[in-house]
Amino acid sequence: MTGSSAADLRTGYAWRPGSKAVLGAPGTATVLPAKQQLTGLAPIQGGLLKALNAGPVAFDATPPPPVADLLRRLLSAGAVELTVSRGETPLYSLRPFRATDSARPEPANARAVLSRFTVLRRVSEEFVAEHPRSWCDVVVHDAGVAGLLSGAPGTVDAVVADSFWSDLTWTGHAVPDAGVEESEFGAASWSPHELWFHRRSTVGDRGTSWAHFGPTRWAEGRFAPVPAAPEPYDGAVVELPAPDLERLATTDVPLTRATESRVSTRSFDDAAPMTIEELGELLYRCARTRGVRTIEKPGTAVTELPSRPYPSGGSIYELEVYPVVRNVAGVESGMYHYDSVAHTLQRVADIDAPAVQRLLSPAALTLSDGELPQVMLTMAARAGRIMWTYEQMPYAVILKHVGVLTQTLYLTATAMGLGGVAQGYGDTAAFAAATGRDELVECNVGTFVVGRPRG
């Protein structure tokens, strides 16, 4: 692509999806859905709003001052999209989702580098650059412009490059040099994926309309709901003893004592390991399924809502528990799945299977002197259970559920005289290899080591 001057570029404007202007009395208008009131409009400005309501408006040169001023106001309010084109060929667009922080600068011959937080992905047939702290997305329509994102000269001329990098810097997608985001602790301390996860899994600039955020049941009519119980494994079944809850209701350690005496235990007594009765009691008190409600409404899919001792958003309960047993009196060593409905263990793999050993080995970094756990409770999420209903936020909710279950395990183990410690990480690939589950269907999201404390 060739070109010689900024006059070769056209700047077009269009209402962003859902926006429009409602003209009122002469010189007044309301921009919806923001309900922004515009007053004192000149006739030429009212004409611009009518033109925008009819479709995109493009300018080959700088528009008259009243028009330019109103376009700046609409752009700063996040009401219109801006597209830079050469002739009839679109190059890139700025697609706002909130108001801008400053006026659009004039292009300058100044180079920049892509922000470490900017990601480029395909959305339908478009390439979209997104940044968690920007006020807009940048939609790249031209392959030569897309090449600039790599830092290479690409196949575009300096006029296009100057315009593109100027707009990327203005929108926060680019920074003057790579060191800018490494020199301040605030920016350097966040890894890109964590900042993205934080911004995209909470209500904010992109989620204020609730159109595609939260419990939308987006999969209704497209996919069947994921059932409450997972597919069983083929391994042998181990019956677990169930505790006497009525007796525990009167004899158990008080909640305050359990809370105040809870500690993270990192050393365990292999000469006196926990028993099958204790493992059964712990799982029964923390993770069993007490019942399943079936919800049937006309015109909607039948959904199953379990009940367990810990809370879960929407009563969905996507978590599964896999005890990796190394040393428990009455249970053969191996990896098991806890059937929370039947209160049984179903064998998944041998303890010496390479994938199971890979699951266990990181626990040695958590425990004293590199010892291995008596039992490691691996928590997995059947993500589809919650992702069928929720948009954007489900993985964040899954991790909240891991925290809830972890605290329940901590307090119950303490009340039982057992010791436990949570891990902040786990080998997700090893879990997939050990269970044979597709990570998109069921994935490792947490681990909790438990056993008989030493001393």
UniProtKB/TrEMBL annotation:
Domain annotation Nitroreductase: ranges: 261-451
Annotated Cyanobactin oxidase ThcOx second domain residues: 113-204
InterPro entries per record: Bacteriocin_Proc_Enz, Nitroreductase, Nitroreductase-like, SagB-type_dehydrogenase, ThcOx_dom2
Entry superkingdom: Bacteria
Gene Ontology MF terms in the entry: oxidoreductase activity
Pfam family, one: Nitroreductase
NCBIfam families for this protein: antibiot_sagB
Protein name per its UniProtKB record: SagB-type dehydrogenase domain-containing protein
Taxonomic placement: Bacteria, Bacillati, Actinomycetota, Actinomycetes, Mycobacteriales
